[in-house]
Amino acid sequence: MYKTGIMGVYLIATVFLFGTANADDRLLYGSSTFCRVPRCDELSQENYLYIMNAEKLGLSDEQIKKLGKIKSECDREFIVDRAKLRVAKLELDELLKSDEIDMQKAGEKSREISELLHKITIKRIKTKVQSMMILTDEQREKTKELFGSQLPKE
Predict the structure, then answer these.
(1) 85 near 113, Cβ under 8 Å?
(2) pLDDT in tens, 73-118
(3) Please, are residues 33 and 121 in contact by the beta-carbon 8 Å criterion?
(4) How many domains does the chain have?
(5) What residues make up the domain containing 102?
(6) Residues 135, 137, 138, 140: is their CA dihedral positive or negative?
(7) Are 147 and 139 in contact (CB under 8 A)?
(8) What pLDDT does residue 44 have?
(9) Which of 15, 21, 64, 80 would bridge 93 by S-S if both were Cys, CB 3.0 to 4.6 A apart?
């Protein structure tokens, strides 16, 4: 009985933190820093700013090409990962709607969701690093002047 109560609290907390499969994206990408998933399309926007201001930044054709490739790869991977995340959340929601909740399956699905969130975050960090490595030190300084503090610092 005690173990069932603890697992129930765990399950409710999991649902609270991750929302349901039908939840608005604000739950996943909200303004809160707690459990916020950085979106790859935010990085695409940064790369887009770099490319659109290529002349001001002094980007070479090769740098523009590399930034465009990073943007495309990031977008492609993000679409796939986001779809997997939505499916996992839908499956968890279905598990929670059943008359008899299988705690093991619900816990496994919760872990899967956590791992997907972690994977998305790590990919975003790697993409940000790749993008910044393409720029020279002078170009990085120029991005700070042009775009402000929302861009990554060294």
Answers:
(1) yes
(2) 888 999 999 999 999 999 999 999 999 999 999 999 999 999 999 9
(3) no
(4) 1
(5) 2-150
(6) positive
(7) no
(8) 58
(9) 21
